[in-house]
Each structure stands twice: as C-alpha cells, then as structure tokens.
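Why do we care about 3D structure at all? Because function follows from shape, and shape follows, mostly, from sequence. That is the central idea of this module. The next example makes it concrete: a single protein chain, its amino acid sequence, and then its structure expressed as tokens.
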Amino acid sequence: MSDKNNNQINIELSPEMADGIYSNLAIITHSHSEFVVDFIRMMPGIPKAKVKSRIILTPQHAKRLFKALKENITKFEAMHGEIKMPEREQQFPLNLGGPPAEA
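And the structure:
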C-alpha cells in the first residue's frame, strides 16, 4: 500500500559538511547538457584563489536553483531590506577556457 502524501526525502548532513565552505566568488560555465558552478575563496593580497567546491547541475536543476535563490532573496530583503551591491562590480581577469563566466 503506497501513501501519496509520503513524498519526504531523508537528507543526511554530516558534521564535516554542516560546517560549510566559505566562498566569495562563483564562476558559472555551461555546456549544452550541464551547468558547472565553481565556488571560490579569494583572500585580499593573495593573487591565487582556490576552487573550494564544484557543483555540476542539469539545466533543469540549475533553473530550479535560480528560482529558489530568487524566492529566498525576495524573502530576505522583505525582512532585512534591500541587499546593497557595489556601484561598480570588481572585474576579474579570468580565462578558464570555457564559455564566458558569470558571477
């Protein structure tokens, strides 16, 4: 007997993963079948930055993530006010050999 309302997913979060990884730059590239998001940590005065995590998504999942981020940013700003962005975004001279990157 199946329960149609039992669509819960049991998600496990290990203590190591719960600590998270700090990132202050994301580089997004894509092919016809996947989106690749590299999360990078840049430190002031250090010319080398490391990719701390790489997430590979299907185009459909990338769009779901985009919608979820948009919804959560809207909720955050409703509670805390508009997120201020610098007038002039810092440009990074990055050429990683793929489609143009977006951050």
